[in-house]
Design brief:
Low-confidence stretches: 16-26, 195-199
Helix content: 10-25%
Pfam families: CsiV (PF10972)
Protein name: Peptidoglycan-binding protein, CsiV
Order of helices and strands: HEEHEHEEEEEEE
Keywords: Signal
InterPro entries: CsiV (IPR021241)
Largest sheet: 5 strands, antiparallel
Number of domains: 1
Structural class: alpha+beta
Radius of gyration: 23 Å
Mean pLDDT: 84
Distance between the termini: 75 Å
Number of helices: 3
C-alpha cells in the first residue's frame, strides 16, 4: 500500500514555499530626494503678490531637528552631494534666476498622505529679525504614484507669492515646479543612483 505521507509530500512543498515567502518581512522602500529652491529675478511685474501669511507647517520637521528627522526615516545629505549640482551651477550663472537653497535627503517608506515633511526656511540676507524670504515645507508621498507636495511662500517688499503644488514624479527625472516668482527643481531617485545632469 502506498504511504499516504509520500502522496501528500509533493503537494505540501509548494504550499510550504508560499508560506515561507509570505513570512519574509517586507523590505523598506528608500528614496532619495534632491531639491533646489530658486527665485525668478525677472518676474517683478508678472503678478501682484498677496499679504504675507503664516504657512501651514503641520508635520513639518526642521532641518536642525536630527532626532525628529531620524524618527521619521529621513536622513539629510550634505549640500555638496546634491544630484542637481550641475543645475545649481547653471542657476548661479544665470541672469534671470537666483538659487537660494539646495536640499537633499533620503526617506524610508514615504506615506500616502499627511506624513512628515521637511521644513524649508530661507532667511533674508542681512535681516537681523530672522524673517524668512522663503518659508514652507516639501513632502514626498507614495501612494499609487510617487508625488512631491510643495507648499512654499516667497516674501519680498511686503508681498508674498505662494508655490503650492503636488506633482506626480517619475524616478530619475528632474521636474520644475514654479509660481509667479518662486520655483523649485526636484528629482526623486533610489539611493546610489548616478547624479542627473542639468536640464
Amino acid at each position: 500500500m502506498t504511504d499516504a505521507r509520500s502522496l501528500l509530500r509533493p503537494c505540501l512543498r509548494p504550499a510550504l514555499l508560499l508560506l515561507a515567502l509570505f513570512a519574509v518581512p517586507a523590505q523598506a522602500e528608500t528614496y532619495r530626494i534632491d531639491v533646489i529652491v530658486f527665485v525668478d529675478l525677472w518676474a517683478g511685474g508678472a503678478e501682484a503678490g498677496n499679504p504675507p501669511a503664516t504657512p501651514s507647517l503641520r508635520n513639518a520637521i526642521d532641518v536642525d531637528d536630527a532626532a525628529a528627522l531620524r524618527a521619521a526615516g529621513i536622513e539629510l545629505l550634505p549640500e555638496d552631494q546634491s544630484a542637481l549640482n550641475d543645475a545649481w551651477q547653471h542657476l548661479r550663472y544665470s541672469k534671470q534666476f537666483k538659487p537660494l537653497m539646495r536640499l537633499s535627503w533620503t526617506q524610508k517608506d514615504p506615506p500616502q498622505e499627511r506624513g512628515p515633511s521637511v521644513h524649508v526656511r530661507i532667511p533674508k540676507p542681512g535681516d537681523e529679525t530672522g524673517a524668512p524670504i522663503v518659508d514652507g515645507s516639501i513632502a514626498l508621498l507614495l501612494g499609487r504614484y510617487l508625488q512631491i507636495d510643495a507648499d512654499l511662500q516667497y516674501v519680498a517688499d511686503g508681498q508674498a507669492w505662494p508655490l503650492a503644488e503636488r506633482r506626480r514624479m517619475r524616478r530619475d527625472e528632474t521636474h520644475h515646479l514654479d509660481s509667479a516668482r518662486l520655483g523649485i527643481l526636484t528629482q526623486v531617485s533610489k539611493p546610489g543612483a548616478a547624479p542627473d545632469a542639468a536640464e
